[in-house]
Amino acid sequence: MKCFHYFKDKSRSRQQRSAPELKEQSKSDYSGSGTHRIAKSSCSETSARRIPELYEEKARNLRDFSFSELRHATHDFDRLLRIGEGGFGSVYKGSIKPADGKGDPIVVAIKKLNKDGLQGHKQWVAEVQFLGVVEHPNLVKLVGYCAADGERGIQRLLVYEFMPNKSLEDHLFNRAYPALPWKTRLQIILGAAQGLAYLHEGLEIQVIYRDFKTSNVLLDENFKPKLSDFGLAREGPVAGRTHVSTAVMGTNGYAAPDYIETGHLTTKSDVWSFGVVLYEIITGRRSLERNRPRAEQKLLEWVKQFPPDSKKFGLTIDPRLENQYSIAAARKIARLADSCLMKSAKDRPKMTQVVESLKQIIQDSDEEATISKESFEPSETDSADSSKEPNQLEATESWKRRMTHLAKLGEHVEGASRRRFMIMQRAKVA
Ligand SMILES: Nc1ncnc2c1ncn2[C@@H]1O[C@H](COP(=O)(O)OP(=O)(O)OP(=O)(O)O)[C@@H](O)[C@H]1O
Ligand SMILES: [Mg+2]
């Protein structure tokens, strides 16, 4: 039997992305469990039952749509209703009748897979089976599916709950959207981490997601993140195995180097991808950007020049944040990213540990924000300098000194410099 290698190149723009590249590969990726080459230590998360069995048990409420139903729902796949285009196919907004036929129509997203033969079908099956089994607030819900082999050829479709705020990719990198605030970035990344932690450690089986990236983090009406795209998901290793051996699949710029080199897939491959996205959130830059100067094209290489504990670190932060972020929290996020990006997979944290770290960072920066807000709010005691904290007093004194100095300068300077100074003063007064 033939197998295929599938690797998506995310460095090209969405418009440029072509259909999946198919190449021959080893046999392991087609068998359910794969050919395991290493059996060193035992894996605690053993899978007594496999996905197909769990699917039989749990996925009864998925709807089986006919092709004409979905054609109708999307006005015959009208281009105007097309809301996205990925490596697997096009996504349309549509509306379907509720399962019991009563009440208002339900708005859904319908993904129509490209006709990629066996590989496309395999990814469709994986997506239906995994999304039929998992259930978590940070994973997208699959409403149903459609498999039709008719005069139009082989059709494979997936019907999801509709996510009105597009993806994290859109909000981080597309200038048509306003800059995503720092706090929202942290909340989104925490939710995404919780989704991954559930897949790795919260189920009877262990699920390796294999395609963690910003475009697969969809956002609901409240900007709550939900992971989508389970076409590349795999079950973790069976008892006694450390990893799954697979054909290398994923997206360039996000896949762990150890996985690319060996084909050994573990949950720590997802942790690496998560580390990449953490740096994307800090910098507002994509993991690969071919239109930047050579030294800046690979995000992970570029950020190495600005370590989290260095003075230069601030230079990495997304300029679109316009100083509305906590530098202390950003440093902590970068340190966390570095731990996810450890060369050796076993040195990377588990996703549950990542979740805990993120919660702590968010809590610390909330407290920091409250303290600094309080310190700027005028109170009755503010008039008495003796009541102020030493560093607050210092800041006030230094501000006064700077203003006096600038005022003096302003008496003598003309033209542009003077105007600049006036603008500064006005800005401070407002
Ligand atoms: N459930 C959904 N609700 C709303 N929009 C969606 C939904 N699923 C996908 N989309 C939109 O369709 C776009 C394309 O998704 P798709 O998963 O096909 O491709 P991708 O993630 O951009 O790339 P790739 O194929 O490499 O994973 C998403 O970025 C998103 O804007
Ligand atoms: Mg996707």
Structural class by helix and strand composition: alpha+beta
The CATH architecture category of the largest domain equals Orthogonal Bundle
With helices defined by DSSP (H or I, 4 residues minimum), what is the helix count? 12
**Low-pLDDT segments, ≥5 res:** 1-6, 10-47, 379-430
Mean pLDDT: 79
CATH topology of the largest domain: Transferase(Phosphotransferase), domain 1
Approximately how much beta-strand content do the residues carry?
15-25%
How many discrete structural domains?
A: 3
> Can you list the strand order of the major beta sheet?
3-7-8-6-5-4
Shape: globular
Pfam family, one: PK_Tyr_Ser-Thr
InterPro entries: Kinase-like_dom_sf, Plant_Ser_Thr_Prot_Kinase, Prot_kinase_dom, Protein_kinase_ATP_BS, Ser-Thr/Tyr_kinase_cat_dom, Ser/Thr_kinase_AS
Domain Protein kinase: 77-362
Protein name: Protein kinase domain-containing protein
